[in-house]
Amino acid sequence: MRFSLIFIFALISVVLLSSESEAREGLEETFTVSVNPSWKYWEKTDCRMATDENGTYEECDSYLESETNLTNDWIISAPLDSEFTFTLNGTNFSSVATYNFSYKILTAGGYSGERHDIDGPDYVEEDIEITSSSLIFNGNNSVIFSYNLAGNLSSNILINETRGQYLGDCVRLYAIVTLERSNNSIVEWTKLYTSASFLPGQSFAEYSDIYCHPYTPGAWQTPSLHFVAALTIISFVCVRKTRSA
Question: What is residue 227's predicted lDDT score, i.e. its pLDDT?
Answer without folding.
Answer: 40
